[in-house]
C-alpha cells in the first residue's frame, strides 16, 4: 500500500505524467480523464483514496479482489490496462482545455490503433464527448470504433461524481465486463 504524498510532493507532481499500464491485445484498456496530483506524486493511476475506480473494477467482476493502485501492473495479467485522455497531471480536470482533450483524443486513437485492445473504456463522459467530438454521447457502448476496437464510456469514478453511487458504478462496470467476455468468446 502506498504512503500518502506530502504537500511538497503534490506540488512537484503538477504537470507530471504517469506511464501507461498497457500491452498489445488487452481485453479492456481503461482510459481516465487525466491523472490528479495525488496519482502523479505516487506514479499510480486512480491513486487518490476517495477514487472509486478500484472498488468498481472489482465489484464489476474484472478483478478477483480489490486491487490497490500500487498493484496496477498486475492488471496486465488479467488482460486489462490503464491510460488517460490527457497525460499531464492537474489538481482538477477543469484545468484542461478543449484543445488538450481533442489532442488527447488523437493521441489515444493512435495508441489504440497500435495496441489494439478489444475495448477502450473511457472513464468520464465529458472527456469522451470533448476528445472525440460526440457531444450527445451517453454512458455505455458507443457506435464509434477505433479500428477494430469497440468503445464503451463509463461514469467518472471520482468521489466528486455524486451522480453515480458505488453500486451504480459497479453495475456499469459489470455491463462492460459482460460485453468484454462476449467479445472474447467470439
Any overview of this molecule?
With 186 residues, the chain is an alpha/beta fold. It has one domain: Uracil-DNA glycosylase-like domain (Uracil-DNA Glycosylase, subunit E, 3-Layer(aba) Sandwich), CATH 3.40.470. It has six helices and five strands, in the order H-E-H-H-E-H-E-H-E-E-H. The protein has helices at residues 7-12, 37-42, 53-59, 98-115, 125-132, 166-184; strands spanning 28-32, 80-84, 119-123, 140-146, 149-154. It has a five-stranded mixed sheet. The longest helix has 19 residues, at 166-184. The protein starts with 6 loop residues before the first helix and ends with a helix. The mean pLDDT is 93.
Secondary structure class reads: alpha/beta
| Order of the strands making up the biggest sheet | 2-1-3-5-4
The first-to-last residue Cα distance is: 38 Å
CATH architecture descriptor text: 3-Layer(aba) Sandwich
Q: Which stretches are low in confidence, meaning pLDDT under 50 for 5 or more residues running?
A: none
CATH homologous superfamily heading: Uracil-DNA glycosylase-like domain
Please, how many helices? 6
Shape: globular
Cα gyration radius (Å): 15 Å
Keywords: DNA damage, DNA repair, Hydrolase
Pfam families: UDG
Protein name: DNA glycosylase
Domain Uracil-DNA glycosylase-like: 19-177
List keywords for this structure.
single chain; 6 helices; 186 residues; alpha/beta; 5 strands; Uracil-DNA Glycosylase, subunit E; hydrolase; pyrimidine-specific mismatch base pair DNA N-glycosylase activity; five-stranded mixed β-sheet; uracil DNA N-glycosylase activity; DNA repair
Amino acid at each position: 500500500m502506498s504512503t500518502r504524498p506530502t504537500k511538497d510532493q503534490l506540488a512537484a507532481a503538477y504537470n507530471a505524467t504517469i506511464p501507461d499500464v498497457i500491452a498489445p491485445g488487452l481485453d479492456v484498456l481503461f482510459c481516465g480523464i487525466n491523472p490528479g496530483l495525488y496519482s502523479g506524486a505516487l506514479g499510480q493511476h486512480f491513486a487518490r483514496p476517495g477514487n472509486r475506480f478500484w472498488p468498481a473494477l472489482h465489484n464489476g467482476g474484472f478483478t478477483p479482489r480489490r486491487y490497490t493502485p500500487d498493484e496496477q501492473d498486475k492488471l496486465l495479467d488479467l488482460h486489462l490496462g490503464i491510460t488517460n485522455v490527457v497525460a499531464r497531471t492537474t489538481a482538477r480536470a477543469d484545468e484542461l482545455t478543449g484543445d488538450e482533450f481533442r489532442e488527447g483524443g488523437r493521441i489515444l486513437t493512435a495508441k489504440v490503433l497500435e495496441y489494439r485492445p478489444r475495448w477502450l473504456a473511457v472513464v468520464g463522459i465529458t472527456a469522451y464527448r470533448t476528445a472525440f467530438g460526440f457531444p450527445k454521447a451517453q454512458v455505455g457502448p458507443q457506435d464509434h470504433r477505433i479500428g477494430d476496437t469497440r468503445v464503451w464510456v463509463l461514469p467518472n469514478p471520482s468521489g466528486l461524481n455524486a451522480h453515480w453511487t458505488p453500486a451504480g458504478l459497479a453495475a456499469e462496470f459489470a455491463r462492460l465486463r459482460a460485453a468484454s467476455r462476449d467479445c472474447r468468446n467470439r
